[in-house]
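#onboarding

Welcome to the new folks! Below is a worked example of what a typical request in this channel looks like: someone posts a single protein sequence, and someone else replies with the predicted structure as tokens. Don't worry about understanding the tokens yet, we'll cover that in week two.

Example request:
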Amino acid sequence: MTKLAYVFPGQGSQEVGMLQDVASEVAPLFEEASTVLGYDLWSLVANGPAEQLNQTEFTQPALLTASVGLFRYAIDQGLPRPDIVAGHSLGEYSALVAAGVLDFRDAVALVQKRGQLMQSAVPMGQGGMAAVLGLDDDQVTEVCAAASQGDEIVQAVNFNAPGQVVIAGVNAALERAIDGCKAAGARRAMPLSVSAPFHSVMMKPAAEAMAAELAAVTFNPPVVPVVQNVDARIEQDPAAIRANLVTQMYSAVLWTGTIQTMAGEGAATIIECGPGKVLSGLCKRIDKSITALNVTGADLSAVSEALSS
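Example response:
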């Protein structure tokens, strides 16, 4: 039996003005989030400024609320419920709300704190990230190992699709790794405009602080299977899901493996729920047999037609 998967994006999919065509439908959820956060989240999403929206502590609640809002809108409009879910980095929290593991209000508070901790873990300008295109995973891992010297560490942190890996670490090591990837034949190796080396070991202090925040929140058994980032495996135990969210902060996002796991479970169609189409593009690169669709706003006709064909 073929299954339907929903996936939820991470940072980078946000933009000022997103969700305008479903503003009235998602308004109650944004109001609920604003109550938790202590500021008007919809005003920030609708009007900016972009500089604030792109700061991690604001990006994370905005994307969570946008993704969950679009997911609930899609279900309310008659799209089928998922058989399996996953999210990329921050998006894993949206997936856990969709799977009934986390209460939405708890998730909003958690990702606000997560963003604050991630931003403060590494002083501005000391670490960064880069995208590497055209090398296989092992090549990138080897280059990073060679570029790391003492405390100057760089790692592969997002295995996004075959030939598409993101690396992160201390600036000096990151620069050596970029040069090393180019020398190894990478099609491109370019710094990303992010404010910290997310998912690297430099995030471990943030993860340790986040563990206390997660321990104070109720985690329920998932109503549908959730594939987690850290090992690309389905986890049903609430305590293990919580523990994996801690590890996730300083470990690689195994997105290629996540999609392969979903396909192995019978997911023939994947719907990306959130602003942008980053994950659906990656899905097509990972497994061309998967149909990748998008819920980015009010128009669900293309998704409905594809599901009924």
